Amino acid sequence: MQQKPNQFIKLRQEKLEKIKALGIDPYPVESSRSHFISALMENKEALLASETSVTIVGRLVAMRRQGKLGFGNLEDASGKIQLYVAQNLLGEENYELFKLCDPGDFIQANGSVFYTQAGEFSLKCTAIKLLSKNIRPLPAVKEKMVDGKTVRYDEFSDIELRYRKRYLDLLLNPDHRKVFELRSRIITAIRRFMDNLGYVEVETPILQPLYGGANARPFITHHNTLDMDLYLRIATELYLKRLIVGGFERVYELGKDFRNEGMDRTHNPEFTMIEFYEAYSDLRGMMDIAESLIKHLAKDVIGKEIFHYHGHEVNLGGTWRRAAMTDLVNEYTGIKVDNSSQEDLEAFCKAKQIEIPKGSGKGKLIALLFEHFVEPKLVQPTFVCDFPKEISPLAKAKPGNPLLADRFELFIAGGEFANAFSELNDPMDQRERLEAQAALRALGDEEANVVDEDFLEALEYGMPPMGGQGIGIDRLVMLLTENDSIKEVILFPQMKNS
Fold first, then answer.
1. Alpha-carbon Rg of the chain, whole angstroms?
2. What's the rounded Cα separation, in Å, for the pair 57 and 110?
3. What is the pLDDT of residues 314-361, one digit of tens each?
4. Do the beta carbons of residue 48 and residue 40 sit within 8 Å?
5. How high is the pLDDT of residue 1?
6. CATH of 176-320+380-488, one of 3.30.70.260, 1.10.10.970, 3.30.930.10, 3.40.50.2300
């Protein structure tokens, strides 16, 4: 009869007591390593010829014994190797310890490499040291040979459980570990790219007395000592602009933002953004940086330009399209929004069963049409420019057209990847825009901006013309690793209580 999981745990606890009875510490302080397992696999012939003694450490992922001879598979972050464990090489006491080991234990193994009679490259062990005794059995892993390679399958098929117990997902799915290793390389490359452009990395408050810089609902917390409510930041924009007022000319921050909004395959309430601001630049400069940065990550970090994402084949090479929002809406809806009245656009939206928020002007209606009819169709990289000023409270008006903002959003495979402005530096205009946003809040728009008097005061001291941009790191990693869910690229995504 199959034993229940708690019976397996009990058996391992009994082994733990036996190990302690042998005078062995099952959780020792010291351990040592002379080689990663990958180094053994890469230098087989040299190690065989020299009979070098090596010390490796890792997790025992499989083991089997027959009398006074045993085998095990030891795995570290770099690879896996077979252990050959014989009592006459270890000695009776050390072999007794090996008999009390289980898959999941962390051990240290000393010895030299050789080929077994079956032709398996292995470590002939001369000493085994237990580093950490495993109490809870690992989920079973199945392996099969595909085209001469060992492939794991059905190792952790419950997707929600993988997210909740990410440590097991990473342990049992080496390919998933590679995604997060690649994420780390991408973030490092972004920092290096920005540093090489002369930007200074800074840190601004996560807990803020007022939130701003985006249209989003915040998370609220309370500071007991100050007896005041604070907000988790929804963006870093307004603090970074204060630094430009203070004399910095190029700044960026790469860190967490928090928005109390819905969750889906591209949204998580806690997410990673980079925002950067450059004095004496503008929207064109921001476009050049976005395109250069993403092309660099694709070609130099990932090593390719064609990606499969959300069912599309995306080419990040070549020249990226730049188009006005109104032109795109005209193209995909067949109506001329420039020449249409607000009443005409409202009637069209109602006919298409598009919900119209209270207080929406013509600009907001154009944006709604873009969101419904155009955004999903923008597969190849496209800079969508000339947003309505009505929905761009922090951007300068477009020269020659006061109804439009000098703003772009970058769309790839139907999703937004970057948002940038020629930043508004007129304090009187900025006040009017934020007060208009406050009026929308009064009508029930919980995502409208608030009036930040301290920020407005900073603007009154003078801020140079500049370009500013935000890029979502999680979505960028999704694209570059070809993952269709944001939960696959965030180590510990937010989950509903089970």
1. 29
2. 9
3. 999 999 999 999 999 999 999 998 889 999 999 999 999 999 988 899
4. no
5. 42
6. 3.30.930.10
